[in-house]
Specification:
5 strands; 5-stranded mixed sheet; alpha/beta; 3 domains; Nucleotidyltransferase, domain 5
């Protein structure tokens, strides 16, 4: 039996059946069994589309169509809209979509209902169903391609982080977790990406450090540079070796971060979060305290430190049921002893 409770999933023939069964006086559950729907679906359909009146399929369908129409306003370049006619006229004069978009912005500087980007024009052309209109509009374009070419042409249009060190040239002992002091980093985003918290995890001990980022624009490279520099410099020097990060543009100033802290920054391959698996898994633990959709700007550094302390005190199976803080202390002590032995 279908368990969906969304009344819009009902088809017109379902509404005809409901109207007939209502006239026969059947109960909601009996109608649901015959339609193989959830009782809540039938109940909601009757309550929404026949309030205070006998249920009829024609009236119910009209109410449903009207509600759907107003819930989904037509796009600016709807084929029956006035703006589409203007754009089509200029296309037939062999204006490019970019020229049309610039002309509209100049002609209607205050009227945003008559302004669209050139990408919107391209999408409106290629979204047309196959037929004479689509063929005529594509014929007005300079190249007359049957399908839209990707804007990126396979390249990242946002620009590249300069002088990146790939994870593939990272020392092999980092991958093997033989020595401590190697970190993985990321940003945990808040509601609408308007707030963020830095996340640093040491690979050997799984120790977590949460970093308060300034507001507004917490993800800017300037803010990330300053906040990460302060936190990383608070770590003992033997435990500051490398940092593995994704290709987020907040790390644009990674060279300055290396100069400030002595940590080499390595970057993962695009769309490869498993290359920072320790950090990704730990971020999942942090989400128990900072759920998705939360405004993170209201958390102080003291509150973030308290969250990190709780996570660092949890026993981990991968650490032999020891907690990250305990393992980190051992690593720090061993690193200090080795440093004293060398000197």
């Amino acid at each position: 039996m279908k368990t969906t409770s969304n009344y819009q999933h009902l088809q017109p023939e379902d509404r005809v059946t409901i109207a007939s069964l209502c006239q026969q006086g059947l109960s909601i559950r009996a109608m649901a069994r015959m339609l193989k729907r959830a009782p809540s679906t039938v109940s909601r359909e009757i309550a929404r589309n026949a309030p205070g009146a006998p249920y009829t399929s024609k009236f119910a369908q009209q109410r449903c169509d009207r509600r759907r129409h107003f819930a989904r306003p037509a796009p600016k370049l709807h084929v029956d809209g006035p703006l589409f006619a203007i754009v089509a006229t200029q296309l037939k004069l062999f204006w490019s979509p970019e020229q049309i978009a610039l002309w509209l912005a100049r002609r209607y500087p205050e009227d945003h209902t008559h302004r669209v980007s050139h990408e919107t024009i391209y999408n409106a052309i290629y979204a047309q169903p196959r037929g004479e209109l689509r063929k005529d509009l594509i014929a007005c374009l300079r190249h007359e391609r049957a399908t839209r070419m990707p804007r990126t042409r396979g390249t990242d249009r946002r620009g590249q982080i300069p002088d990146m060190l790939s994870i593939h040239v990272r020392p092999p002992e980092v991958e093997d977790r033989l020595f401590p002091g190697h970190w993985e980093g990321d940003l945990i985003k808040g509601a609408a990406n308007a707030s963020a918290v830095g996340s640093l995890v040491e690979r050997t001990s799984r120790l977590l450090i949460l970093v308060k980022l300034p507001h507004p624009k917490p993800s800017s490279s300037v803010h990330v540079l300053q906040a990460f520099t302060d936190k990383l410099n608070a770590i003992a020097q033997p435990m500051r070796q490398t940092l593995t990060y994704d290709r987020g543009r907040e790390m644009m100033q990674h060279k300055q971060l290396s100069e400030n802290t002595g940590i080499k920054v390595y970057f993962c391959d695009p769309y490869s979060p498993w290359q920072r698996g320790t950090n990704e898994n730990t971020n999942g633990l942090v989400r128990q305290y900072l759920p998705k959709g939360t405004d993170l700007s209201g958390y102080s550094q003291e509150q973030l430190d308290a969250i990190a302390d709780q996570i660092n005190m949890r026993p981990r199976k991968t650490l032999g049921v020891r907690c990250p803080l305990e393992v980190y202390r051992e690593c720090l002590l061993n690193a200090s002893l080795q440093s004293n032995t060398i000197h």
